[in-house]
Structure formats: C-alpha cells, structure tokens
Amino acid sequence: MASQKLALIGFGTVGRGLVEILREKRELLLEEFGFGARVVAVSDVYHGSCFDADGLDLGRVLELVASRGAEPGALSAYSDQVCDWDSLETIRNSGADTVVEVTVTNIETGEPAVSHCRAAFEAGAHVVTTNKGPVALAWSELKDVAKSRGLQFRFEGTVMSGTPVLSTATEALAGCEFVRVRGILNGTTNYILSEMEQGRPYDEALATAQELGYAEADPTADVEGFDVLAKVVILANVVLGAEIGVTDVSREGITGLDAAAVAAAPGLGQRWKLIGQVERRDGKVVASVAPVALPLSDPLASVGGVTNAVTMETDLVGPVTIVGAGAGKEATGQSLLSDLVAIHRAG
Ligand code: HSE
C-alpha cells in the first residue's frame, strides 16, 4: 500500500498522541517498515473539522488546537475554506482508507463510535481504535462486517494501551488455549490504591490521576470498575473466544474500600488491587471485576502506581505475564501506530 490515508475521528489526548508520533517517527517508519501515512481529515465534536486530500499539515493542526483549543471550533481556522463536515460526513467524504476512531468511550451504548465503525466499513475503510465501547459492545457484528468486506478492525490499545496484550494473545501465542486471564487493567485505580496505601486521601489521589490524563472523561468509569469491565469483555471474547456481553460480568469498583484497611494491608502481608478476571469454569466463561487483597507473593501485588499487568494462563506456554503502561498519550498513540503498521504489512 502507498501511504495510508487516515481520517481521525476524535482529537483528544489519544488522537494528538498519534499525530505527534507520526510526525516524530516519520523517517524511522519509512526506513524500517516502508510505512507512510497522510492524515487527510480530522473531525472532533468540540474542535471541529479540517480536510486536505493531499494530507494536512500536522504541525498546524496541533498548533491550532494548542493555541485556540480553549474555544470550540479551533480546526475551522485551518483553511479559508471552512470544512463543516461532522464525523459521519468526514468518514464518508474524506476518501480515507483507514479511519482512526478515538472518540470518548461510552460503555453503555458504544456510541457514537459504533456508528463511526459501521460507516467506515460501509465506506470501504479499515478501522483502528482505542475506544472500548464498540469492541466491548459490538465486536461480533463489527468483525463480521469488516471480514465480509476484506477490511481490518484493529483495537490493540483498548487493553493496556501500547503494551501488547491482544496481539501477544492472538498472534504470538497462536494455538494456545487460554484457561484464565487475570490482571490489573486500570491505571487510575491502581494509582489511587498505591497512594492510599501510603496514607494519601482517595480524593487527592483521584485528582492527580485526572491531572495526569489517566482517568476517563468521567472517572466513575474507572473507580466503579466499568473501564475494567469493558476490558474484561474484550479479553473474554477476543482471547478466550467467548460471546459474553457487559451484563455477564459481575462488577465492583474501589469506592467501597475502607481507606484504613488499604493502608494496613501490607502489614498483614497483603495489597489491595482491582482485579479483572476471565476464566473457563465447567465449560463456561466466567468474568468478574472486584477489589482483591492479594498476598504479597502474588506477582500482581508488586505492580504499583499507574502501571498495568496481566497474567494469561495458557495450555502450551503456561502463565505469561505482561507488565507495562495501561494509559497515557504516547503509549496509547503507539497502540494505534502498531495497528496501522499491521494494516500496512498486510496490504
Ligand atoms: N482510564 C483508563 C485507565 C485509561 O486509567 O487505565 C486506559 O483505558
């Protein structure tokens, strides 16, 4: 494939992270993979839209959002000819061969991301996304549509951002059966629990996680376990081949934990972690999200701060544990890049 034509739907932290990487690594990507990308359109519900079939000047796009982003519609100043496309018009009209869907996750309806994915496939474009909504709620439908049209639907960053969990499970561990997958899948809550263990109040720790850009737009999704729930559904369906929905997962967040108990746990040889788990039990796939006081000897107990970790128990390789970033602008931007390079290689 010549250079990929990309349309970015959503231009928050993650979208900007990808654009910065595409600029910074342009030469390296060309030299190492023969990979080149042209961003032909950006459409964001707050910043507005811009389009150039020859490829946007990404420095200018970033600068506009940085300098004028406090007001809505910053991207309308990109050129004299104002682009008034909304997200669906951008997908249909931009001629992009890959849509990068990076709008805010909605775990209740999956929208507007599910509609964006459907529109992209109808327009003959691949989709790469870090949005958990469409994958947790509509993976079965979307993967079938993509397959029937010879398109790719890739979402590496939905679980542990750029830390390669899904590709490791589905590609590197090909042929393995997964008995159980269990992990710390949310950076915000792991950070809060680590800070609370040091005696810091819950509210203060949450505020810092928000300032650092780890928390979801509505942090209820983090602290009440909805974000982990979405990731557990993705792991269940994509890695264990189950067909479960969000209502099949039992869920408890960290808001009911007693601060004194969290701080006292290490003295008792334990550490509180929010654990997402999916396992095969009696022929069924059982999934849960809950705070657990892990013994300090558990490898997951030593994973602190915003770091994530997941252990995949397989028949052929035994337990495989992956520890790494689970959120953040660069790490999540990189997950999109890895999906784009995979599409390039397949093309
Ligand atoms: N809010 C999420 C977290 C971001 O804290 O891990 C990545 O899904």
Description:
By secondary structure, the protein is of the alpha/beta class. It has two domains: 4-162 and 329-346, Rossmann fold; 170-324, Dihydrodipicolinate Reductase, domain 2 (2-Layer Sandwich), CATH 3.30.360. It has helices at residues 13-24, 26-33, 58-68, 87-93, 113-122, 132-148, 166-172, 187-197, 202-211, 220-223, 226-239, 259-264, 329-346, and strands spanning 4-9, 37-44, 48-51, 98-101, 126-129, 153-154, 178-184, 249-251, 270-281, 284-295, 308-314, 318-324. The strands form two sheets. Strands 3-2-1-4-5-6 form a six-stranded mixed sheet, sandwiched between helices. The protein has a six-stranded mixed sheet with strand order 8-10-9-7-11-12. The radius of gyration is 20 Å and the shape is globular. L-homoserine binds next to α8.
List keywords for this structure.
binds L-homoserine, 6-stranded mixed β-sheet, single chain, 22% strand, alpha/beta, 12 strands, Dihydrodipicolinate Reductase, domain 2, 2 domains, 347 residues
Backbone shape = globular
Structure ligands: L-homoserine
Rg, alpha carbons: 20 Å
The overall number of domains is 2
Secondary-structure element order, N to C: EHHEEHHEHEHEHEHHHHEHEEEEH
Q: What is the oligomer described by this structure?
A: single chain
So, CATH architecture of the largest domain?
A: 3-Layer(aba) Sandwich
Helicity range of the residues?
A: 25-40%
Can you tell me the residue ranges where pLDDT is under 50 for at least 5 consecutive residues? none
How are the elements arranged and paired?
Elements (H helix, E strand, L loop, with lengths): L3 E6 L3 H12 L1 H8 L3 E8 L3 E4 L6 H11 L18 H7 L4 E4 L11 H10 L3 E4 L2 H17 L4 E2 L11 H7 L5 E7 L2 H11 L4 H10 L8 H4 L2 H14 L9 E3 L7 H6 L5 E12 L2 E12 L12 E7 L3 E7 L4 H18 L1
Parallel strand pairs: 1-2, 1-4, 4-5, 5-6, 8-10
Antiparallel strand pairs: 2-3, 7-9, 7-11, 9-10, 11-12
Helix pairs in contact: 1-13, 4-5, 5-6, 6-11, 8-9
Bound molecules: L-homoserine.
L-homoserine binds next to helix 8.
